[in-house]
Amino acid sequence: MILSETRPALAASRTMSWLMLFARITLFAAFQALLALLLFLLGSSQAWESAANWWPLTVAAVDLVVLLLLIRLFAAEGRRFWDIFRVERATIKGDLLVMLGLVILAGPVSYLPNVWLGQALFGSPEATLELIVRPLPHWAVLLALVFFPIGQGLTELPTYFGYVMPRLQAQGMRRWLAVTLPALMLAFQHIAVPLLLDARFIAWRAFMFIPFAFLVGITLLWRPRLLPYLVVVHILMDLAFAIMFLNLAY
Fold first, then answer.
1. 1 pLDDT higher than 90
2. Mean pLDDT for all residues in the chain
3. What span, in angstroms and rounded, lies between the C-alpha atoms of 215 and 221?
4. Helix (H) or strand (E) holding 54
5. C-alpha to C-alpha distance for 157 and 218, rounded to whole angstroms
6. Partner of 3 at 20 to 30 A CA spacing, among 16, 107, 160, 175?
7. 63-80 burial, b for 16+ CB within 10 Å, e for fewer?
8. CA 205 – CA 193 distance, rounded (Å)
């Protein structure tokens, strides 16, 4: 599904594929910086730290920008972005079976590095939770519950593995490198979500998702038609995480 386009059409996106590889982490940092500047101008004495509290909504804003970019980039190739979410009915039973196994495997792959790194870097996984789950007004949490998981689902995997990866392959890049670069950037983008000027936090965010990113990337390299299913799983995972903000809402 994703890799079925002609190579000349995909190779024409050479420049944009590299820009999109780094777009999300750049935009995450830029949006937080802009919010921090606004808070500073409004008199906040801890503008950067306060801006970090709002990361679920700044991420949602970035997701909207990325979504519009993806729609435009696909249209420039004469294609519809939304077609990458089309389910292949002929293989749905087999795909669902594969997804069941993948979900079972993805649980420990996504969770254990988070805990182990938190323990190694902070002495306690709970310390990392306090840094990332931050207080927000009730109305902001409600917005985050809707827009954060949907935005992430529609743009994160589609950016790295629906847009960038096949176009790197179309440029003649070796398959292992074409999946490695997007997987690494999928993991590393979390450095800026939120961007805290703390070396331990940056290391934790940089490396906690690497095994999961490679699992997803290799899966989509092998079977691209699983993308719609993974998007749904992704939305549900991020929704479960966003619910944690309700405990600190004010």
1. no
2. 93
3. 10
4. none
5. 12
6. 107
7. beebbebbeebbeebeee
8. 8
